[in-house]
Structures are given as C-alpha cells and as structure tokens.
Amino acid sequence: MNNQTILHQAVLDCTDLTTRELNQKLKALASEGISSVKVINPAGRHNLAVGITQAIAIQFQGAVGYYCGGLSEKVDIEVFGGCGWSVGENLMSGNIIIHGNASANAAASAHGGKVCILGNAGPRAGISLKGGTLIVTGNAGYGSAFMMQQGCLIICGNVGENLADSIYDGVIYVGGNIASLGADAQIETMTPQDWQLLDEELQPLAINHEKYDFKKVVCAKELYNFKAKDWSKWKDAY
C-alpha cells in the first residue's frame, strides 16, 4: 500500500489505486482525524475527492480531471496544476484552489464555499451558482453565470458573450471587458461596499483590486413575471 502517515499528515500515491479506492482512503483518513493529505501522481484522473464530507486538507500534486471536489463539504483542496470541467460542482462548503486553468462549468451549482481559479476558466463558469463564491483571476468564457441564483462571481480579466444570461440573483464583478450581457442582466453602479468586498476577497490572493476597472452585473428583474406588454422583451430574450 502506497500510504505513509506521519503524525497528522499523509501521502497517497495514485499510481496503484483506482479512483474508488483513492476516494475511500481520503474519506477514511478524514474519519481518523488526519488533517492533511498530499496526493501524488493524480495524472489528470477524473472524480477525485468527490463526496468528501469531513474536514480535511487535500493537496493534489499535478493536474486533475473533471468533477474534482464535487459534492463535498468542509474540504480544503489545492490542485497544483490545471483541472477538467465542473471543478467544485455542487460544493457545499470549504475551499478549492486551482493553481492553473480550469475547463468548463467551474463551481457549477455550488451552494457554498469558495472556488479560486488562479488562471483562466472555460465557458459557463459559475453556471447555476446557488450561493458559493467563484473567483477567476484570469479570463472566463462565454455563458458564464448562466441562470445564476445566488452567490458571487469575480472575474479579474475579460469574460465572453452572454454573461449572466437568465440570471435570477447574486452578483458578478468583472475587472476586464464584457463581450455581451445575457437576457435580464444589467450593469449597476459600484458602491463602497462592493469595493470592500473585492478587497476582502482578492487581498488574500495578493491581488490589488484597485488596478482593475471592475463592473458590477446583477439581475434587472424585468423578466421575473410575464407581462403581455413586455412581450417584445421575452421574444428578444428567448
């Protein structure tokens, strides 16, 4: 067994473990009170650290595939490499930091916690976000924050077309250019509270928010209820 435990830290080598075995070992270590695990040789494997519900810090020494950290809570995951799509999907609490780029659907439907992409994110970042926070220090692709319901999305760079299409609630900050807004999304004036929130979220990442021209995007709430007189807005939106 490639498992070395030293005090409250452990090392797991993915080489001779199936994904199921690896996830079972991570859950067992969390149950035993092991506070930190270093996972080596992840080799871009999918579904790593999925469904972890007890507090534990996990470091992946290399790229991971899709769904890393999905359906988890109380976790503190760091990936030293890129990741596939849907990192932190349905995350309930905890933190996930990606030291690289992320594919599509980062933090999809995350209910809580925070996902930080220290690079670029693909399309549909923060899709259907339900309460968590997603920070992208680079650019994000098209369709980001589609059907966002709650939470906070911060994009320091540029974002693609149809940002916040069909958004219900929540707030989005974009430090670069916005290719276009989606249906029922609008730009709102930044307040001192907004700048304070950005400072609190970005300062730990050594990012000075004052160097960016942040715009705030929220729901215009013009399409919450159908009104016959607004038919043209519905027709144009959908």
Short note summarizing the structure:
This protein has helices at residues 19-31, 192-202, 231-237, and strands at residues 3-6, 9-13, 36-40, 56-61, 75-79, 94-98, 114-117, 130-136, 150-155, 171-174, 185-188, 215-219.
- Portion in beta strands: 25-35%
Order of helices and strands: EEHEEEEEEEEEHEH
The N- to C-terminal Cα distance equals 55 Å
Q: What would the principal axes of the Cα set say about the shape?
A: elongated
Percent helix range: 10-25%
Report on the biggest sheet. Answer: 12 strands, mixed
**SS summary, helix count:** 3
Number of strands: 12
Overall radius of gyration:
19 Å
Structural class: alpha/beta
Low-confidence stretches: 1-6
Give the strand order of the largest sheet, numbering strands 1, 2, ... along the chain: 1-2-3-4-5-6-7-8-9-10-12-11
The average pLDDT value, as a whole number, equals 93
Kindly describe this structure:
- With 238 residues, the protein is an alpha/beta fold.
- The protein is 13% helix and 25% strand.
- The chain has 3 helices and 12 strands; from the N terminus they run E-E-H-E-E-E-E-E-E-E-E-E-H-E-H.
- It has helices at 19-31, 192-202, 231-237, and strands at 3-6, 9-13, 36-40, 56-61, 75-79, 94-98, 114-117, 130-136, 150-155, 171-174, 185-188, 215-219.
- A 12-stranded mixed β-sheet has the order 1-2-3-4-5-6-7-8-9-10-12-11, sandwiched between helices.
- It is elongated and about 60 Å long.
- The model is unreliable at 1-6 (pLDDT under 50).
